[in-house]
Design goal:
Shape: globular
CATH class of the largest domain: Mainly Alpha
Strand content: under 5%
Helix content: 55-70%
CATH topology of the largest domain: Cyclin A, domain 1
Number of strands: 0
Number of helices: 13
């Protein structure tokens, strides 16, 4: 059964996430949502299966549990996670393709951050990605490769992700109470599961796939007006009422949160959130930027290396004596 479950976030990890670099919760939520949406869009343009993109979303979220989001540029982290997961599966991507797609999505011509439009554009083949010239491409590729290794190291090379999408379809086949075509309910349930990937509540890191699948089915059936039995049918799938209620609220609340952000001229209206923007916003608020930035992380790494080399020199000197 281990292939159907995921390693969940611990209380300490969730607490550590809230304390990284004294990052305000509104900025942290905006960073997470914008970066996960960027990952989804890149997966579409790279013609990757949704299963691959969803796994990249989860891997990225896990990585940010153990390392500050401010350690690297958010778009670079997204690209590295997607490139890594695709390479480990049956749909590897060329580094040039990944770089070109992200160059387009982050460009002024991108439809992703203009508040409307279809990511595929008018053409069925999708918009033409930008073609990065040599030097920017080499720089982007080197950052992605370094970040790929960093993600693997931070996650102890555990990139296993069990998705709830297949379980939702399987559970639907066992349910006869919906009174509507299963395809309609299945489509709505999968949409809820894909939306939950973008939720700053980290639903995929705090709940197992079977619970997410049941919550998506419940929400989909409710939206479609399907008649549900009065008994606690979700307990058949090992989900209690409290967990189901939390997940249903979490899945259905994301749309309202995004709408509020857009109406209030929030961070999401500024385009893709960048590390420079977040650091500038923190300075405006009078908040100290912690050691989560890339520069500080590199200095800390250099200090550790210096200390290790000093210890080795001291031990060598003792042996010589």
């Amino acid at each position: 059964m281990t292939h159907m479950t995921n390693p969940l976030a611990t209380v300490d990890q969730l607490y550590q996430r809230t304390s990284f670099s004294a990052l305000p919760s509104d900025l942290q939520d905006a960073i997470f949502f914008a970066t996960q949406r960027l990952t989804q869009a890149a997966g579409i343009l790279l013609r990757l299966p949704q299963s691959v993109t969803a796994q990249a979303n989860v891997v990225l979220a896990r990585y940010w549990l153990v390392e500050s989001p401010l350690s690297y540029e958010f778009s670079d982290t997204s690209a590295a996670a997607l490139f890594l997961v695709a390479k480990l599966g049956a749909h590897p991507c060329l580094p040039r393709d990944v770089c070109n797609v992200y160059a387009y999505l982050l460009s002024p011509n991108s439809v992703l951050f203009k508040g409307g439009g279809d990511i595929h554009g008018k053409d069925k083949e999708g918009p033409s990605p930008s073609n990065l010239p040599g030097i920017p491409y080499a720089s982007f590729q080197s950052r992605i490769m370094a970040l790929e290794a960093r993600i693997l190291y931070s996650l102890s090379f555990n990139t296993h992700v069990a998705l709830p999408h297949p379980l939702a379809i399987t559970y639907l086949q066992a349910l006869d109470f919906l009174g509507l075509p299963r395809a309609e309910i299945a489509g709505r349930a999968v949409a809820y599961l894909n939306t939950a990937l973008l939720s700053p509540q980290l639903l995929y890191l705090t709940h197992q796939p079977h619970a997410l699948a049941v919550a998506a089915i419940y929400s989909a059936a409710r939206d479609a007006g399907a008649k549900m039995p009065t008994c606690a049918w979700w307990e058949v799938f090992d989900v209690d009422r409290e967990e189901l209620g939390f997940l249903v609220v979490g899945m259905r609340s994301l749309e309202g949160w995004v709408r509020t952000q857009l109406e209030d001229d929030g961070v999401l209206t500024k385009g893709m959130v960048t590390r420079a923007y977040v650091e500038g916003e923190m300075r405006k608020r009078g908040l100290r930027i912690g050691n989560g930035s890339a520069g500080a992380g590199e200095d800390e790494m250099e200090d550790e290396e210096t200390a290790l080399m000093r210890q080795m020199d001291e031990k060598a000197a003792q042996l010589d004596e």
